[in-house]
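Service request form, structural biology core

Requester: graduate student, group of Dr. S.
Request type: structure prediction, single chain
Budget code: on file
Notes: please return the result as structure tokens.

Sequence provided:
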Amino acid sequence: MRRLLLLTGAIVFVDTMFFAVLTPLLPHYAHALHLGKGGAGALAAAYPAGTLVGSVPSGVVAARLGVKPTVLAGMTVVAATTALFGVAHAAWELDAARFCQGLASSFSWTGALAWLVAGAPGDRRGRLIGQAFAFAIGGALLGPVVGGIASVAGIGWTFGTVAAASLGVAVWAVTTPAVRPETPQPFATLARALGDPRIRWSVWFVVLPGLLFGTLSVLAPLRLSALGFGPVAIGATWLVAGALESLNNVGLGRMADRFGPFAPIRVALVTSTVVALVLPWPNERFALAAVVVCAGLSFGAFYTPGMTLLTHAAEARGLDYGYAFSLVNLAWAPGQAGGAALGGTIAESTSDAVPYLGLAGISLLTLAALWRFGSSS
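Core staff response, request fulfilled:
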């Protein structure tokens, strides 16, 4: 189990590292290519848009061919597209590379998490998912640092190194045994599972933090840059946020196993509402950086309990874990892409306060709906 956890952790670490590497580089690309907030949002949204396209096919491949081929396909294409992003110069080239990398990432994430959960004892699932997400957050933590290094050492060489790491993880996956599904599930099984309210709730608790993080990933770096932070300082802000979020997810996994997944989700809804209400107002760079760190902790607290809820619901319905985790990508992608693209566009035409306050309202309405669901179930 430990070897499989480490492999899963390495896969999601590399994926999230490249996803997060754009954060400190976004002001550079926005300035060099004259993108504006809307264009910067489109670049940030390209990765999750690719993930959306790959979400259902990745589940089908995992359920029919097995988790190992799904992971290998994903990691190989991740390596190629990471290298291409490092040498791209035009806006459309960057968008295309990010889109293809997101598509490939949906395969590696679906395969890796299904591989891990299939071998996990039921009473340790939340803990193992939390540990896997600690690795993922570690990648998200290191990504901005790598972006800061790339701004100094050169984007091409830095991204080439990340691509080589992705290929190394693919080789590791080749040497790890995995079970091929004996009786592949039909796609209709996934469609029927969406009638389960627990699965619909777990999907929403991936969409919502995607919206929150998508908006934050565009507006916060641009605002910090305007207040005087450079790429390294922006990367350091995400480094601190990621470090704390990584530790938090391990604890959230234990809490979800002990008290059920809804307890930590309610806390995340309250804190996310408060942070979203505060985010538009700081006019001092260090104060804003502190609020961004709090946002990372609050917004990231949905994923581990939400996925714990999903795996228990999938097991109760007999749903293949490949299909279950394809729902994660299907939910995360429009949330992250919508938050990035719509948040940037709305902020450009109005102000940063409008998308942040809208997200606070959505979080508050979700909390009210969840209390109602809990009292009626």
